[in-house]
Queue: 2 jobs
Job 1
Amino acid sequence: MASPRNILYALGTALYVSAYAAAVPLDIGVDVCLPFGIQVGLFIDLFEPPQITEVVPIFATATTTVPSAGVYTVPSGTSVATVTAHEASEMCITSVTTKTTTYPCSTSTSFTTTWWDPCISSSSTGTCRWTPPATSAPTTITATVTATITESATSCVPTTPTATLSCDPYGYLIQYATLYRVDLTTGDTTQVSTGLGDNTSINSIGYNVLDNYIYGYQSSTGTILRISADGTTVTIDADSPPAGSNIGDVDTNGHYWVGTETTWAQIDLAPGSATYGQTLANGTTSTLGYAVADWVYIPDAGEYMYAVGSVSSMNETALLRFDLSTHEWESVADYGALGVIGVGAVYGMNNGTLYASENGNGQIWQFPVSGDTPFEVSQGPASGNNDGARCVLNLLA
Ligand SMILES: *[C@@H]1O[C@H](CO)[C@@H](O)[C@H](O)[C@H]1NC(C)=O
Ligand SMILES: *[C@@H]1O[C@H](CO)[C@@H](O)[C@H](O)[C@H]1NC(C)=O
Ligand SMILES: *[C@@H]1O[C@H](CO)[C@@H](O)[C@H](O)[C@H]1NC(C)=O
Ligand SMILES: *[C@@H]1O[C@H](CO)[C@@H](O)[C@H](O)[C@H]1NC(C)=O
C-alpha cells in the first residue's frame, strides 16, 4: 500500500518556500478506502501533509563572438556538437537546468482530487483539507537536477550572468532609482541598492518567476531593465514599453504587462522564447475613472492584472482588475471610504491576496482578491515615484 503522504498533492495554491516557477503534481493512484483522512462535511481532513512537487527551471547563458559565417564546435556538456553561424555574430547558448523538489506542505491548503476507491469499485472525488500543526516548517525531501540545453544564434543579451533573486517572501519596492526589500508583515524595509540603471526614474517593476529577475521600465531611455538580486541592472534588447509607463508586472508565462492608466503592452520576456523582447499585443484602455499606479498577476485568481484604484476627491477605494483577454478594466469591489488613497505599489501572493502600499502614509494593506474586506497589516515606508514587485509563487508572509 502506498504511504498516504505519497498519494495526494496540492496544486497551485500550495506553492511556497523559495524559487519556484511551476508546479507539477505527482500522479499516484490509491488502493485503499479513505486511508488518508477523515471526512468532515464536504471536506476530507488529511492525516498527513500533502506532497508538493515543484519544477524550477534555472537558466544560464553563455555568449561567444564568432568572426564570420561557419560551423562552430560547441563546448562539451551541451546537447548538440556544433552550431552554424550565418554571419559574424554573437552565438548564445542557453542551458536550462530543471531542479525538482518534493516536500510536505506546511501551510493550510485545500484542493480537489480524485482517487480510486476499491470499496465502491470506482473513482471518487473530494475536497481535501490540510491544516498544519502550529510548529510545522518547510522541509525539503528530495532535490534532483537534470539538464537540457537549447541554443540560439540570435544576439545574446545577458553577456555576464548576474545574480538571480530566490523567490523569497519579500516585496520589492523601487523608489526613483533605489530598490528596497520590504517585509510586508512587519513593514520593515532595507535598501538593496541605489543608483540603479542610469540613476533616473525606474517604474513598472515586475517579478519574472521564469528566471527570478525583476524587470522595470526606465523612462529616460524608454528601455526595459533586468534587475538582479544585488541591484545590478542590464538593459534588455526589447521593444519599448508605452511612454511614461508606471504600471507593470510579469505573468507566469513570462509576459511583461506594462503601461499607464490609458495604455498597455504585453512584451515577451520568457527566456528562450522565439519572440523574446517583442511586443505581443498593445492598445489603449481606461481605468473606469480610478487612479491606478501598479498591478499584479496572481495565477490562482485567473487571467487578470489586479490593482487598487482610488478617487481621492471622493475618498473612494476599489479593487479593480484588467482582463488579459478583453484588455478592459472591471471593478471587483468598491469599498467606498476605506481611507486607502494613492496606492503606488502592489504585491501579489498566489493564495488570492494582494498587498498594497499607500504612498502618502506608508500603510500596507491586505486585499483578498475575492473582494472581501481589506485590512491594514503593517506600517511601511511612505514613498512616491514608486512601484512594487514580488515573487507571487511564494506563499510565506
Ligand atoms: C543618483 O542621483 C542622486 C540625485 O538624484 C544622487 O544623490 C546620487 O548620488 C546618485 N547615485 C549614484 C549612485 O550615482
Ligand atoms: C503599439 O506598438 C506599436 C509598435 O511599437 C506602436 O507604434 C503603437 O503606438 C503602440 N500602440 C499603443 C496604443 O501603444
Ligand atoms: C476617508 O475615509 C476614511 C475612512 O472612513 C477616513 O478615516 C478619512 O478621514 C477620510 N478622508 C477624508 C479626506 O475625508
Ligand atoms: C494568504 O496568506 C497570507 C499570509 O499567510 C494570509 O495572511 C492570507 O490570509 C492568505 N489569504 C487567503 C485568501 O487565504
Job 2
Amino acid sequence: MGSRLPCFKRRKQVGGLWAYTKDPSMTTALPSTRALISKYTCGMSDFPMPDHYPPHLTQAQFQEYMESYAKHFDLLKDIVSRNDNDTKWRVEVTVNGVPRVEEFDKLALCHGYQTYPEMPKFECKEKFEDILMHAQQFRPEDVEKYKGKNVVMVGMSSTATDVINNIISHAANMYLSHRRGMYIFPTWRDKTPADLLLSWRRRRTGFLLQRYLPGPGASYLRPASCSVPPGASDTIIPLLQAGRLTSLHGIKRFLGPRSIEFTDGSVLDDIDAVVCATGYTADLTVAPFLSSSRPPNYSGPELLPMAVSNIFRHAHPLPSLTQMESAVDAHHAWLAARYAADTTPGSFDRSMVKSWEFQGFLHEAAGTGMENLGEPRLSWVMNHGVETAHAFRVFETGKRRAWEGAREAILRVNRDVASVDFYALRRLSLTRATNTHSPPTSPTQTQIISAQPS
Ligand SMILES: Cc1cc2nc3c(=O)[nH]c(=O)nc-3n(C[C@H](O)[C@H](O)[C@H](O)COP(=O)(O)OP(=O)(O)OC[C@H]3O[C@@H](n4cnc5c(N)ncnc54)[C@H](O)[C@@H]3O)c2cc1C
Ligand SMILES: NC(=O)c1ccc[n+]([C@@H]2O[C@H](COP(=O)([O-])OP(=O)(O)OC[C@H]3O[C@@H](n4cnc5c(N)ncnc54)[C@H](OP(=O)(O)O)[C@@H]3O)[C@@H](O)[C@H]2O)c1
C-alpha cells in the first residue's frame, strides 16, 4: 500500500489495441470490431459499464470505457518512483522521444501478447506478384484495393471475420483457407449474448470435471472431436452457407504470379490478394529472458493484475522455491504429454496452463473470497447469474480493496439482463454503424526498450 506505480505505454491513447490506430505496424481493433463477450461480463470490478452501451461494445466504446476508467481513477499521470535497494529492475525507456533509465523494485510487463504478426512461411511465395500480407496491416481505409478482386483469407478465427466483414462487399470472390477447421460459435445464442450462458457455477463444474475426469471433462466444455480452440464469429457460417465465401484447404505453395496450390492438390489461377489472419506473437525483445507470454484462459479482466499486485506487495506469499520448481517440472511433464499427443505440426501452444488449477490460485492470491460464496442473499445470483467482475470486490478479505457498490452493481447487472429485450437490441446493433468517438490523447507516450535485472 502507498507505493507509486508509473505506467509506460507506447500508444498515444489509453485502451491498448482497442485504441484504433492507422499505423500498420501495430495490432489494432478495427472501427467495425465488436467485443466478443458482452458488456455484462467484460467490465471492470468497480466501474460499471454505462447503460447506453449495447451488449457487445464497439471498438470506439471499448476505448471510451478504458479512457473514462483511467480518468476516474486518475491514472493518466506519469509518476516515477525510486529507491536504493539493490534488487531493482533497470528499465530503459524513451519518454516523448527522450531516452532515460529508470529503476524499479517490481516490474509487470503488460505490453500485450498480440504484437508481432505470425506470418506462415509459404513455399515459393516470391512467385506471387499481387497482395500478400498479414491482417495486422489491413485498414478499412484501403478497402478500395480489393474492389473486384479475388481474395484468399488464410485462417478462420476472429481477425479473419473482421477483415472479411470489411472486404466481402467489395471483392469479386472471397475464399477462406484453413488447415484443420474450427468450432465456430456465435456471439448470440437465440436471444442472449453467448457469454451469459456461462456462470460461476458452470465454470467451476467444468474445472472439477477437467481435474478429476480429464477426458469427459474436456468434452463437457467443447465437442469431443474438436482439438482446436473454438472461435467466435457471427458471419463466417452464414457467408459459407450463402455461397459468398468458399472454404479451401491450407496453402501448399505458390505456383506463379496469381496461382496457388492448396494441400488437397486443388489450384486457383486468378488470385489477386492473400490476407493472412494467422495470429500474433508477443514482443519479448524487451525482456529477452522470457521465452513465452500469453495470458491463461479466461480469468476475468482484473483477476490476474489483482493477484500480481498482492504478490508484489506481499499480501499473498509465494510458495517456496523448491515447491515452485517442482510445480514447474510437473507442468513441463504435462505439457510434454500434450505435445506428444498433438497431431498438427506448428500449432502446439506451449504457453497453455491448467485453468482448473490456475484459476483457484489466482482467486486465492487476489483475495476475492469467492471460493465459498457464503453470502446468503447474493449466493444464488453469484453462482448462477451473470459472471460480472463486480463479484471480485464483494467480500472483505483484507487482501484487496472491497467496493461497497459491488453488491448493488451485481444485482443491477442481473436485473438489466433479465429485463432487456435482447432481440430488439440485437437487431439494432446489427444495423447501427457506430464510430463517432474521437479519443482524447494522454499526456505522455513512452516505450520500454529493454528491461533486465540490474
Ligand atoms: C482485434 C482484436 C480484438 C479482440 N477482441 C477481444 C474480445 O472481444 N474479447 C476478449 O476477451 N479479448 C479480445 N481480444 C484479445 C485482446 O488481447 C484483449 O482484448 C486485450 O486488448 C488485451 O489487453 P492487453 O492489455 O494484454 O494488451 P494490448 O491491448 O495489446 O495492450 C498493450 C499495450 O502495450 C503497448 N506496448 C507494447 N510494447 C510496448 C513497449 N515496448 N513499451 C511501451 N508500451 C508498449 C501497446 O502499444 C499497447 O498499447 C482481441 C484481440 C484483438 C487483436
Ligand atoms: N472482438 C473481435 O471481434 C476480435 C477480432 C479480432 C481478433 N480477436 C481476438 O484476437 C486474438 C487473435 O485472433 P486472430 O484471429 O488474429 O488469431 P488466432 O485466433 O490465433 O487464429 C489464427 C488462425 O489462423 C490459422 N492458421 C495459423 N497458421 C496457419 C497456416 N499456416 N495456414 C492456415 N491457417 C493458419 C489458425 O488455425 P489452425 O492453427 O487450425 O490452422 C486460426 O484459424 C483472439 O483471441 C481473437 O479472439 C477478436
